[in-house]
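Design job #97: recover the sequence.
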């Protein structure tokens, strides 16, 4: 199982906390200035982006490996 970040754009307030704290720069703003995932599968250190989101718009889910 691998981890995947999910962002609820309806909850995103474009504060930038996730963008500035993501160690591997896996998140950026889209054309509507809402956070979006660039690199879908993340390392364990990226749990910080979930913790810093003030609106709880970001979650990490388990994703099955497809081979």
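Job complete. Output follows.
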């Amino acid at each position: 199982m691998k981890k995947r970040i999910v962002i609820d754009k309806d909850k995103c307030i474009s504060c930038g906390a996730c963008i500035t704290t993501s160690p591997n720069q896996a998140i950026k703003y889209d054309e509507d200035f809402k956070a979006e995932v660039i690199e879908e599968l993340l390392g364990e250190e990226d749990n910080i982006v979930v913790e810093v989101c003030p609106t709880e718009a970001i979650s990490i889910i388990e994703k099955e490996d497809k081979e």
